[in-house]
Structures are given as C-alpha cells and as structure tokens.
Amino acid sequence: MKKLNAKATRLRQQGMGKRPNKTEKLNHSEEELLWENGSLGNHSPVALTNANVKCLSEQMGLRGRQDYCDAYVEEFILREHDDGLESIVFNENSTKTQSGGLRVAKRTTRQVMWSTDGGPRDPVKLFKLWLSKRPQPMRNQGPLYLTIIQRPKNDDVWYTKVRMGQNTIGKVMPRMTASLESSTAKKLTNHSRRKTVIQKLKSAGQPRYKIKEITGHASEAYLNDYDVISEE
C-alpha cells in the first residue's frame, strides 16, 4: 500500500492525478510577463480590469465568476489610515459556498487589501483608478464589473452602465494569458488565480485556518487539493 501511495503521489506531482484536466496555477515568471506585455496594467480598460481581477483574487480571496458576478461597489470601502496608507475593506455579501438555509453565513474575517508603494502595481491605486473610469452615477454604486468600452471616446469613461456578462467574466483569465507560450500547454481559468494565491500562502507557511479565512472555503479539508507552488 505504501508503494502504491508513493507512486500515486509522484503521478499527481506530474499532473496525472485524479483530475488530469484540473485548472493549473501561474508561476512568478508568467505573472511578470503579463505585466511586461501589457496584459496587466493601468493603460487600457482591458488591462485595468485584468489587474483588478488579479488583485481582488490575491487580496480578497474572491472566487471565479460567482463572486465577481455577485460583487457590488458598495461592498468595498476605502479607508485612510493615520500612517498615510490606504486600504479597501470587503464587506462580503452571501456567496454560493457560504450561504445556506435562512441564515446567511459570511467569512468570519473581513478581507482587507492594503496599498503598497503607490506605484503602477499598487492594488489600492489600481482599484481607485478602476472605479474612476466608470460612468459618473456608478462610481460609488452598482455591479462591480461593468462591460468594457473597447474603444473609449475619451479617457474619463472606460466602461458602460451594463453589468459584465457571466461568460465574459469567465473568460478573463484565458484571454489574459493567451499571449503566454505556456497557455497552450496549461489549463488556465479564473480559478488559476485563486489556486495560485492559495499555494503562495501555503508556501509562505501561513496556517490553514488563516488561508481559509482569506479564501472563504467552508472547510479546511478543501485546501488539501492545493499543492505547493513552484516559483520558477
């Protein structure tokens, strides 16, 4: 039995486990390429949306299209701190994993996204810019994800008043990573971002209960499927 378990472990590490078609993670080099080739950034509506998908997944533990479709601007609160830093606090609404019965269960810990160096990759700066590019009446309210204007007539408004469709949200990661050579060999979906975050937290030695608080998993047992990430 021990030999069989050892062999099964080796096969899973080679991507031949119980779910050979499961979503894969992004490594550090691939993420850097996305910034360098303009797939992530603040220079266009698509790049800005992609960057915020990345930041919200990493900092808030948002899931795939379910969380993104359900999110509203009103759930994200900007706070300014005495030390000059800023943060975005996520007051989560109910989600498919957390809701049940007549009572709505939410994450036990509020998710917070902190500002960093104020540079072009600062998550709070990117989030504020993202909201500022919405139509004026919807900069403080409404669905978080709005349809992108592919060719904006001016630099003030990059998004329409229409909620982004579920199918479009579901294709954010595949389209974002289409320029990567590895995308032809990997199955990359919106869940890849979430998987990458969990594996980074594991590699950093974060306890399972802390990871669960960030990701919103109903049980720590669900973290068993996430292997240790390789930052190559």
UniProtKB/TrEMBL annotation:
Keyword vocabulary terms for this entry: DNA recombination, Isopeptide bond, Phosphoprotein, Ubl conjugation
Keyword match Phosphoprotein: yes
Superkingdom classification of source: Eukaryota
Gene Ontology molecular function, alphabetical: DNA binding
Protein's GO biological process: DNA integration; DNA recombination
Domain ZMYM2-like/QRICH1 C-terminal per the UniProt entry, residue ranges: 28-177
PANTHER family from the UniProt entry: GLUTAMINE RICH 1 LIKE 2 KRUPPEL-ASSOCIATED BOX CONTAINING [PROVISIONAL], SIMILAR TO RIKEN CDNA E130308A19
Name the record gives this protein: Zinc finger MYM-type 4-like
Native source organism of the sequence: Paramuricea clavata (Red gorgonian)
Lineage, highest ranks first: Eukaryota, Metazoa, Cnidaria, Anthozoa, Octocorallia
